[in-house]
Write a structure and sequence with these properties.
Length: about 180
């Protein structure tokens, strides 16, 4: 299985809403002492976790699918899981599904174009901006102070879900780990 976290490379984007996928991959690497693999042909940071792979595409969000397709093809991987931010879900929501549309998310659009739509999505809700025209600046902004208080707990919970998914079905992970709305204390 290839587990991909979507995000943008570089310190400028490190703590932005759009990088929640990178944050989960970083935590999975740390929790599981995943081994770094080197290959510039993948356009990403690739790690081995037992018989699975963890990937952070370094192509910037809009071209993520290029990196994913390269790893998938080279290692002949059938099952792909993509962890990404989702504007259509409230902050802290965690949902799972296979297939579907990209909903205007350029990272998903690129993935769909390069490997098809048949992959598992770990949808992490980041909420919406007040005005539709603010979407780009919203996803590229840092989480607010209140959200930051719960970020590590939410990321840890998402990691548990992904680790559970490695050994269980999508239906099982969905029924056990779905959060409709994160309860801010």
């Amino acid at each position: 299985m290839l587990i991909v976290g979507l995000g943008n490379p570089g310190p400028k984007y490190e703590l932005t809403r759009h990088n929640i996928g990178f944050m989960v991959i970083d935590e999975l690497i740390k929790r599981n002492s995943a081994q770094k693999l080197s290959s510039s042909s993948f356009n990403g940071e690739l790690f081995k976790l037992s018989s699975h792979f963890l990937l952070k595409p370094l192509t910037f969000m809009n071209l993520s699918g290029i990196s994913i397709a390269a790893v998938k093809k080279f290692y002949k991987i059938e099952e792909v899981v993509v962890i990404h931010d989702d504007l259509d879900l409230p902050f802290g929501a965690l949902r799972f599904k296979k297939g579907g549309g990209h909903g205007g998310h350029n990272g998903l659009k690129s993935t769909d174009e390069n490997i098809s739509k048949e992959y598992i999505r770990v949808r992490m809700g980041i909420g919406k901006p007040e005005h539709k025209g603010e979407t780009a600046s919203y996803v590229l902004s840092d989480f607010n102070k209140e959200e930051q208080q719960y970020l590590s707990e939410w990321i840890s919970y998402a990691c548990e879900a992904v680790e559970f998914l490695l050994e269980n079905s999508l239906e099982d992970v969905s029924s056990k780990y779905t959060i409709k709305k994160f309860q801010l204390k």
